[in-house]
Design brief:
The complex is a heterodimer. Chain A is an all-alpha fold. Chain A contains 16 helices and no strands. Helix content of chain B is 75%, strand content 0%. The relative contact order of chain B is 0.14. The chains are: A mainly alpha, B mainly alpha.
């Protein structure tokens, strides 16, 4: 990702001069390194130390012996996890919720951006944008509170509408089959507007002459969208898709954990909530670290694969 | 511009679609606001649909009287202000050196930061580090472990690279300005827009987060607002004293609901009050961040 400095000494220069040049530059900017030291120390402690500590996934960690002192058990925790009856449920829920979120949450912001871009009345555009961005700023806890309020079988708006229409409202949060839809569509409700911003910006940078030429040639609005608008936001969309696919195993812990109840656990338990419950609530550090490590490794592999595919197919890639 | 028949149909369909989206997004927001200003009776009878029914401030009065909410609010303000200040210092301290092309070792150093975006030790290992540092159940756990977001650092670095002319920095150096003085007198004054953007990103993040508090805190006095909200809105653990003095059972029931609506409004108000500002800067920040470089 980082580009080598253009001012590096040519490779032919003798080694000693190279060292001296490096040393001269470091000395000249010692204050920059001093400033950089603060975040570097932070990273070392809070990001790299945990990477060292993740070896407890291969040990039977106990606080008395410490990380390096606890007995080595190899892949025993991983085997226990893969053989556990929960493994396939967790994997299915985690990947299922992610893919469902992606399938609903990825195209809709694009559609919204195209629609807003087509609207001509400025005040109308602004109003729609203002309103659709707003839910993004609501906290996860409040969002789940709102979901529970709206789906309440007694007083919720949905229940009242259904009663008014002559139906019988049910306990929607208690139905495992509905959990993923509620999770995904409330997420779309909250994030769609904000996610469209980036596409709206890409659309507004299209050269107006291109559009005029298309109209003179007799293109309809839909043809214009298809042949001009969509291709011009495609690179942005691909980058975002890569980022999202790389996150497939990383469904948001916060919202799912809040939405869980004993009745919907069969479809709502995902790897991250399981790691939290087993690891921190039941203090099985090593086992849940193994589960978490499995998750992180899959994430990393996915990100690399998707990036490779994107690089080969199109010209866009993350690195 | 003249429109053909197909195009006119398309326009109508488009406006209808946008209006539907608008209604779907705006209705719940309006409903919550209206409910929070209604009377407990109207709420429990399900008479609120769009506008407040029997206007009353009873819900807000009950929220204000709750000491938990007060403590949580205060804690959240502290965590947000202190946390954001730390975040901004850390972000600039990383972004400025890494934006300098003549920094020796810039490539590997940048890689050291980026790698943490691709791989992490995970929840448990991070928790154990925080525990080893003796930060469990202390206020520091709310602001230190998340002192830096790599993503915001990259946004900031991109801004430095594109918006602060090299000539200016070189001129400052020629005039004998040290790197620290350059940061203070040249970089910071020119970077107020980006500092506002990432400051808002971080501040909204702190205000809205409950995860750190959930895993690190166990003393109620330290809880931020979001944990209190979780107890009331999601777990429905309500302090009985909040509704105890109401005799009418029906009103007491309604009060429980009403209180939740008012609480939602009170908790979201700070962010929504900043909303026009937030919106403008967030859009800008998002766009700076999307520049590849």
């Amino acid at each position: 990702m980082a580009v080598a400095s253009p001012r590096t000494i040519p490779a032919r220069a003798p080694r000693r001069t190279h060292h001296r040049e490096a040393w001269r530059r470091i000395r000249r900017h010692w204050q920059l390194y001093l400033v950089l030291l603060l975040p570097l120390v932070y990273l070392a402690i809070f990001r790299y130390w945990p990477m060292y500590g993740v070896q407890i996934a291969f040990r039977d960690y106990n606080p008395v012996d410490g990380i390096a002192g606890s007995p080595w058990v190899g892949i025993a925790h991983f085997q226990r996890f893969f053989n556990s009856y929960l493994f396939w449920d967790l994997l299915r829920n985690t990947v299922g919720i992610s893919i469902y979120s992606l399938a609903a949450g990825f195209p809709l912001p694009i559609v919204l951006a195209l629609a807003i871009n087509e609207a001509r009345r400025r005040w109308f555009k602004k109003t729609v944008q203002m309103a659709t961005y707003a839910p993004h700023f609501i906290s996860t806890v409040v969002m789940v509170g709102i979901i529970l309020q709206f789906l309440d079988p007694r007083l919720g708006v949905i229940a009242r509408i259904i009663t008014a229409l002559g139906g019988t409202p049910q306990n929607y949060m208690g139905q495992a089959s509905l959990f993923q839809s509620i999770y995904v569509w409330s997420g779309v409700w909250q994030g769609m507007g904000y996610a469209s911003i980036i596409y709206i910006a890409a659309l507004s940078s299209i050269d107006p002459q291109l559009e005029e030429a298309a109209i003179i040639d007799g293109a309809s609005r839909i043809q214009k969208i298809w042949y001009i608008d969509l291709p011009s936001i495609a690179p942005t969309a691909i980058i975002l898709l890569i980022l999202n696919v790389g996150q497939v195993m990383n469904v948001g812990f916060e919202k799912i954990y809040l939405m869980q109840n004993p009745l919907n656990l069969t479809t709502s338990e995902v790897i991250s909530t399981y790691v939290y419950k087993v690891g921190l609530l039941r203090a099985q550090y090593s086992f849940s670290a193994a589960v978490g490590l499995f998750n992180s490794v899959i994430d990393l592999i996915l990100l690399v694969i998707v990036n490779q595919i994107a690089r080969r197919v199109g010209e866009t890639s993350l690195w | 511009m003249r429109l053909g028949r197909g195009d006119r149909l398309f326009m109508i369909a488009n406006y209808t679609f946008l209006f539907l989206i608008f209604a779907i997004v705006a209705y719940p927001l309006i409903y919550i606001l209206s409910s929070s200003f209604s009377s407990p009776r109207a709420v429990v009878a399900g008479r609120v649909w769009l506008w407040p029914v029997e206007f009353s401030l009873a819900g807000y009065v009950a929220v204000l009287k709750n000491s938990q909410v007060g403590t949580g609010y205060w804690n959240s303000i502290i965590y947000t202000i202190v946390g954001t200040a730390i975040n901004i210092v850390m972000t600039i301290a990383a972004a400025w050196p890494l934006s300098r092309r003549d920094l020796w070792g810039r490539g590997p150093l940048t890689g050291f930061f980026i790698f943490t975006m691709l791989f992490s030790g995970g929840l448990i290992a991070t928790y154990l580090v925080v525990k080893d540092l003796n930060m469990i159940d202390r206020r520091t756990a709310m602001v230190i472990p998340n002192a830096l977001s790599i993503w915001n650092m990259i946004v900031c670095r991109t801004y430095f690279q594109t918006s602060i002319p090299d000539e200016l920095v070189e001129a400052a150096e020629l005039d004998g300005c040290s790197d620290l003085r350059t940061i203070w007198h040249v970089v910071l004054p020119l970077s107020m827009p980006i500092i506002a953007v990432i400051g808002l990103f971080y501040a909204v993040g702190h205000w809205n987060s409950y995860f750190s508090a959930l895993i690190y805190l166990s003393t109620a006095d330290l809880y931020p607002l979001q944990i209190i909200l979780r107890n009331i809105l999601v777990l429905h653990q309500m302090d009985a004293s909040m509704t105890m003095d109401i005799e009418d059972l029906m009103v007491r029931e309604g009060m429980k609901d009403l209180l939740q609506y008012s609480l939602i409004v009170v908790a979201s108000a700070p962010v929504l009050a900043l909303y026009p500002l937030v919106q403008k800067y967030f859009v800008k920040g998002l766009l700076i961040g999307s520049l590849k470089g």
